[in-house]
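Practice problem: predict the structure.
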Amino acid sequence: MTGMRRSMVAVAATVALSGLVGAAAGCAGGAASSGGGGGGGATAAKRSVRVAGSALGAAAVPGTLAPLATGSGSVSGASEGSGGGARADISVPVPSAVIKTASLDLRVAHGRFGDAMNAATDVALRFGGYVSRRTSFGTKVHDGTIVMRVPAGRFDRARMAVERLGRPTNEVVSGRDVTRQVVDLGARLGNLESQQRALRALMRRAVSVSDTIRVQGVLQGVELQIEEIQGELNYLHDRTSMSTISIAVHEAGRRPVPAQHASAIWKDGARAAHAATEVVGAVIVGAGYVIPIAILALLAVLIGRLAAPWAAPLAARRRTPAATPPDD
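Answer:
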């Protein structure tokens, strides 16, 4: 009896120990699988953030126009891979795109106009920009304009350097944010490029001439849209990377008074005088033709009158018959 009891106790102990070992193994396996799933989700999330950040960094470098739509959303990772675990929501900022412009009037001392214009040109070159237009007019007192383009990061320093060239009398500084427009154009460009790749693949698999022509027509339309969007992105990149400063330089001094507008009566009198002058000119021209003819006619009359006394006897002699001699 005692041996049977000992055997039952040993069997029960073995079953209990096997259950404990199995439960421990199951908990360890579940923990390992959940940890692996969470690690995979976190790794995917980190990889997505890294890719979006690299795309934004490439777009922020001057001279590149990578599509910015990849960084406009948020990246969620471990919540889907871990099956109900903690959710990671990481927002990636989009670099701003602002078109900066400034226009100011500068008044300089008399005789300093040329120095001020040359100094403004030097400011543009010193800050890594260039002068896109330069005009000047006037003889004794001069006025002129300079339009310069400088990098956007040096816009404020260049503007303050220009203000020190004279006495600013009027200044307007503005900035237009075109970030959303750049992001939208980048998204559209990405979609069109995907369509372009798909259409090119279809063209390679086309088996008939009609299919090739039809796909080629659609592909040409997509490529035209890509060129238009790329042109807009290039323009926006140029306007955002290089800011514009317009300067109007005025030299001190008394300027000539502009001519006043004549009244209606004065204009009518001027027109009448002009018409009278034209009539007198026409009379003089006509006299140039008539006077020589009149002189010739007068000379002909005078010659006729002078020749009349001699002409009458000659005519009478011609009319009388010659006398016949007497017969013997």
